[in-house]
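Inverse folding, one chain.
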């Protein structure tokens, strides 16, 4: 595959498949001196993994990351504390697949001649022929998004060290839309949701709280632990149920839907389940907000920042990206659409943010706001018209594989991570350009 690398200075290459041995992430451009643990990466991975309540697929992948290279194995000199810190070489992370069993493979194999409408299975067969990795949709499965989240966890650490922070949430699901809310409220609720998921995740407790995997262990020692965890996956599944009322009382969030407004989150979940019970699926809208970006970041013409954000169409199931007011600008007049400016106490202030923090492809210093439109899950329980892709005969398909009733409940951490990758690469170019041009920050 030729399209599995992104970035110029912060460059990410991903590989793997849904039912291959696992996934891998190779990141070049990670600055030296960052303390990054597998536990930190897992804290983000657990947000997108399936197996969390009625809104997700029954597949129970632990998604335990293993840092393979890119950090120091020991203190490099007497008197220096560099063990476990990044050393500037490529950071490689592995995510082994632990929940793949023959009966599940057979479900896919028995239906692979009849492509799922709305999925990549027909087009990928045309590209790769009979060698197409069609078990679990291979690299076209949502499973690959774990690679983006893992890389994004590293990127967010880089950005946070420079005062840049991101948050994403479900803005709309199954036709139910959240109200407008203050940024601080959104950020606070998203952080509460992340904390809730971490503190109630059985894998986090079993692997990290119980210290079955620690940063000082060797690779083969960690893999031995994963071999034991694989045997425990069925038992882990039983421990993934949330006490919904307790979650609400302690954290003030919905147990499975990351929407900052609890009443809206309840309505979203109800509507998703209603649609699921008819054998169908639903879509939604995810919003990502980034703050702390300096004004003037980005490149003109072919690399405008809003154009780079459009790369989120690379996320599976995303069919649209909008920045700021997005398509709504077509119904505005100029005086409404323009973000008027004034100076107060020596600082530039904007009266609105219809541009989403970007004009001319460059940041304005306002929050960067982008939204992605997520289509319904292609795999549904209703009969659909399809073909036999080998014999080219008409056929009917009623899906029997494991599936998500909606993808939007899981795709928001992917959008957050993808945005982090884009912004880290752009920020590194921005800082380098200003340094070469002699600007003083």
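Residues assigned per position:
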């Amino acid at each position: 595959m030729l399209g599995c690398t992104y970035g110029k200075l912060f460059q990410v290459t991903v590989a793997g498949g849904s039912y291959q041995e696992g996934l891998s992430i190779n990141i070049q451009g990670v600055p030296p001196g960052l303390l990054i643990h597998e536990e930190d990466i897992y804290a983000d991975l657990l947000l997108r993994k399936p197996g969390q309540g009625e809104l997700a697929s029954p597949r129970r992948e632990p998604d335990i990351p293993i840092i393979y290279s890119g950090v120091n194995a020991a203190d490099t000199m007497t008197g220096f504390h560099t063990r476990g810190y990044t050393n500037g070489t490529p950071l490689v992370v592995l995510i082994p697949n632990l929940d793949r069993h023959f009966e599940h493979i057979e479900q896919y194999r028995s239906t692979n001649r009849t492509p799922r409408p709305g999925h990549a299975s027909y087009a990928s067969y045309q590209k790769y022929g009979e060698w197409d990795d069609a078990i679990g949709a291979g690299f076209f499965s949502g499973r690959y998004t774990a690679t983006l989240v893992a890389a994004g966890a590293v990127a967010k650490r880089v950005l946070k060290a420079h005062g840049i922070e991101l948050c994403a949430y479900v803005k709309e699901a199954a036709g139910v839309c959240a109200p407008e809310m203050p940024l601080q409220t959104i950020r606070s609720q998203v952080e509460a949701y992340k904390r809730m998921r971490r503190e109630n995740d059985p894998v986090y407790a079993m692997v990290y709280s119980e210290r079955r995997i620690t940063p000082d262990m060797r690779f083969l020692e960690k893999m031995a632990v994963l071999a034991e965890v694989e045997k425990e996956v069925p038992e882990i599944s039983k421990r993934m149920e949330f006490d919904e009322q307790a979650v609400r009382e302690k954290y003030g969030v919905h147990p499975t839907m990351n929407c900052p407004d609890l009443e809206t989150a309840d309505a979203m979940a109800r509507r998703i389940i209603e649609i699921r019970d008819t054998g169908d699926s639903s879509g939604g809208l995810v919003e990502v907000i980034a703050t702390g970006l300096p004004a003037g970041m980005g490149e003109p013409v072919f690399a405008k920042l809003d154009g780079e954000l459009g790369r989120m169409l690379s996320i599976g199931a995303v069919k649209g990206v909008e920045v700021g007011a997005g398509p709504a600008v077509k119904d505005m007049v100029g005086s409404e659409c323009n973000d008027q400016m004034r100076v107060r106490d020596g600082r530039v202030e904007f009266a609105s943010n219809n541009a989403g923090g970007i004009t001319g492809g460059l940041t304005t210093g306002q929050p960067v706001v982008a939204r992605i439109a997520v289509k319904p899950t292609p795999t549904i329980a209703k009969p659909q018209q399809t073909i036999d892709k080998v014999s080219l005969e008409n056929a009917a398909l009623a899906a029997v594989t494991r599936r998500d009733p909606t993808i939007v409940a899981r795709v928001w951490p992917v959008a957050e991570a993808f945005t982090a990758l884009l912004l880290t690469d752009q920020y590194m170019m921005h800082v380098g350009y200003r340094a070469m041009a002699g600007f003083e920050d």
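The first helix runs from residue 38 to 48. Residues 5-437 form a domain with the Chorismate synthase, AroC fold fold (CATH 3.60.150.10).
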